[in-house]
Design a protein that fits this description.
By secondary structure, the protein is of the alpha+beta class. About 25% of the residues lie in helices and about 45% in strands.
């Protein structure tokens, strides 16, 4: 059993390893998507008593733009603190991360 957040994160890294990139239909490149990452990490994080949450949003920028084909889009860039907590020891690590997304509807911030 892990004693703190550092040991728990190392256990997850050892259990999960590398998340393979896959090629999606119609795209000329491979990527590891959010669903693949969550699917790979979540069981090990639960087993090692780690939960994570957005603890602070530092900045959020939204910009409307139009694609070359005329589609109205919204681009959102968010910089936030993400806290990983080990529920058994109540130890935690906070990291700052920036994420970016674009969408024609309401999901660019997701």
């Amino acid at each position: 059993m892990t004693k703190n957040i550092q040991e728990a994160i190392i256990a997850v890294m050892n259990e999960v390893g590398y998340v393979k990139k896959t090629k999606s239909g119609g795209l000329a490149y491979s990527f590891a998507g959010e669903a693949a990452l969550i699917s790979a990490l979540r069981p090990s994080m639960v087993e090692n008593n780690i939960f994570m949450f957005v603890s602070k949003i530092h900045d959020m920028k939204r910009e409307n733009y139009t694609t070359a084909k005329g589609t109205a889009m919204v681009n959102t860039v968010i910089t936030a603190d993400i806290t990983f907590t080990h529920s058994l020891s109540n130890t935690s690590i906070t990291v700052q991360a920036t994420g970016e997304g674009s969408d024609a509807g309401d999901k660019s911030a997701n």
